[in-house]
Amino acid sequence: MTGIAAPRMRGGPTLAALPTDTLTHVQLTWVEKKIEHWIRFGTASREQAIDRRRRIVSFRPGAVFAFVRWASNDFGTIISRIDIVRIVARGEAYQTLPFVRPGGDILLKIEGWPNVERVLQAIDAVERLGVDPEAASPDYWRHVHNRLTAGHEPRAYTLDQHRAFLLRRRAEP
Hints:
Blueprint: H1 6-10, E1 24-31, E2 35-41, E3 46-49, E4 54-59, E5 64-73, E6 76-86, E7 95-97, E8 100-111, H2 113-128, H3 138-149, H4 159-171
Antiparallel strand pairs: 1-2, 1-4, 1-8, 2-5, 3-4, 5-6, 6-8, 7-8
């Protein structure tokens, strides 16, 4: 079998079966202690349950979300990953990412549980400031990615940085 008919036979839509629209669709899977995909932050505009273990969340252009993927087998963890993605408008260039269709502007891409945990701590620190991580400067998430990739500790996000980002965004055409 080629696998072409397999999604239809299992029942329910897949990412490929979704209507063409301006939304970006993310397929989430949750099989306890085997495959766990979840959204850490971000405001979905639509959610669709496929079955008990799978659902699709959809985001509008401009939205920012954190997508965490973890999987294990009989020998332990095989993948720990977090991606922070900004959804692009139709016609804008984008990068592809597994389980995300069509893709987005990847602000942060980190693998390995110790680094994923540090990103989750950075997200928690932004929330402690009273700032929604989705509303934080995309440059900050790029900074966290670059620092962790280089093996350094990222600098903390500050309210002054956030105010400067909001002023800069307001001044853009």
